[in-house]
Design goal:
The structure is a homodimer. In chain A, 47% of the residues are buried. In chain A, helix 2 packs parallel to helix 7 and helix 8 crosses helix 9. In chain A, strands 2-1-3-8-7-6 form a six-stranded mixed sheet, sandwiched between helices. The first copy, chain A, has two domains: 159 residues, MoaB/Mog-like domain (Molybdenum Cofactor Biosythetic Enzyme, Chain A, 3-Layer(aba) Sandwich), CATH 3.40.980.10; 74 residues, 2-Layer Sandwich (Alpha-Beta Plaits), CATH 3.30.70.2860. Chain A has nine helices and twelve strands. Chain A is elongated and about 70 Å long. Chain A starts with 8 loop residues before the first strand and ends with a strand. By secondary structure, the first copy, chain A, is an alpha/beta fold. Helix content of chain A is 37%, strand content 24%. Chains A and B meet through helix 1, helix 2, strand 2, helix 8 and strand 10 of A and helix 1, helix 2, strand 2, helix 8 and strand 10 of B.
Chain lengths: 249, 249
């Protein structure tokens, strides 16, 4: 495989919710988004967690959407007083919020005779937003310019992942390899320093594993150029003493 | 209990590590920190996740330490090439990095005759940093001005929590109550809006529970004034129809 000719698209995540910052709920969407983007060759450079605060969210959206190719928000798109993401995204782009006829029809169909004005609040979108359902999903994702507005409820967040995959495909994925060793970082560092220097296109990470009896350290090799990653792995394992590594993945 | 007379101290978290942004490792320290701070009456207002990048970390530290009373970093304090937090914090405050004699002695004792120069890199601290071990912990926490440098390895991060608890005690803790109901947000919103308006000192959150057969929505009431929280809970439950709520915690 040849080396990627273009730099990867960049992305940021904005996680919205008092429940995360108060510790009421462990955050669980970031890792799902991160893995999805990795497979699409999109570089997630930054994630920010903020409260349900209109001004703060709006400011973050304005900043992140200027400095990244793509932004993904998680949370704050329900119908209650603490759901302010849609309005905040609209403000960030200087537009108002309108009712999407397509979402309104879906919500009316879903709730049937129980549908209320409150449910219909979930049909509000920033003016100019697109509804994407590339993969044929019934419920589309709301995308305003380069900002994807994703729901915070973990089960619903995960339902949007196939849409992201389909709509943003085409990039060269990042590869990741991992070498496990019983050596500790004190002994590994001199070997790693040489490999890091000789393989600048590969991102090398070293992670002590405290609770794994078979392994003291996991060393990872990441990049979009498969050959370069393989060469860095070979260079590193070639430096290890007899009996090492424990395994390579 | 009387209402708190002073506003809460504010805090930010800076989570450092390529492994989080690449999705290799799910982030798991934020919720532990968030719950700890909540119990200390400290308001965690913001969390940021960045890569192992010296400039980015240094810039974030400078920003966050100016705009919050306390900052907690997680990750990047090991001895390898991808551990750049100590140096980045030093740069943010315009100081150099020095070897702490106290940490050096602890590390030499821990590794004994196997101790190397690489292990001793973990004794490096920004010049002027304090070593805090209020709770009598053998391994202290490194604190530079208002920035706590915590390790990223989840097991080691958790070992520092008792030090945070002991050193930062004295604030009035946040209280949190939760009311569980089978009502959906469409029916709840009109009730909630009234409670939110009448109880401005209480933070009210509404969370649909998709996977809990006994409950459609969890409504939470948070604040540092126990009486105010109790009154908001009573006001809300008083509005619910017969047979509700399912439970109160």
């Amino acid at each position: 495989m040849t080396a990627p000719s273009t730099p990867p698209r960049t992305a940021a995540a904005l996680i919205i919710g008092n429940e995360i910052l108060s510790g009421k709920t462990p955050e669980s969407n970031l890792v799902v988004l991160a893995r999805t983007l990795r497979g699409l060759g999109i570089l997630l450079r930054r994630a920010v967690v903020v409260a349900d605060d209109m001004d703060q969210i709006s400011r973050e959206i304005a900043d992140l959407s200027r400095s990244h190719d793509l932004v993904f928000t998680s949370g704050g798109v329900g119908p209650t007083h603490d759901d302010v993401t849609t309005e905040a995204v609209a403000r960030a782009f200087g537009v108002d919020v309108i009712m999407s006829p397509e979402l309104e029809a879906l919500i009316r169909e879903h709730y049937g005779e129980h549908c209320t004005e409150v449910h219909l609040r979930m049909a509000l979108v920033p003016r100019g937003a697109e509804l994407l359902n590339c993969g044929g999903s019934k419920w589309p994702a709301v995308v305003m310019r380069n900002v994807w507005l994703l729901p915070g409820i973990p089960e619903v967040f995960r339902m949007k992942i196939p849409i992201i995959r389909d709509c943003l495909s085409g990039g060269q994925p990042f590869m990741s390899r991992a070498v496990y060793t019983r050596m500790d970082e004190g002994d590994l560092k001199p070997l790693l320093d040489g490999v890091v220097k000789a393989h600048p296109r590969v991102e090398v990470g070293s992670y002590p594993k405290w609770c794994d009896p078979d392994c003291l350290t996991m060393v990872t090799f990441d990049g979009r150029d498969e050959d370069a990653v393989a060469k860095a792995v070979d260079a590193f394992t070639g430096l290890l003493p007899k009996g090492e590594p424990q395994k390579i993945e």
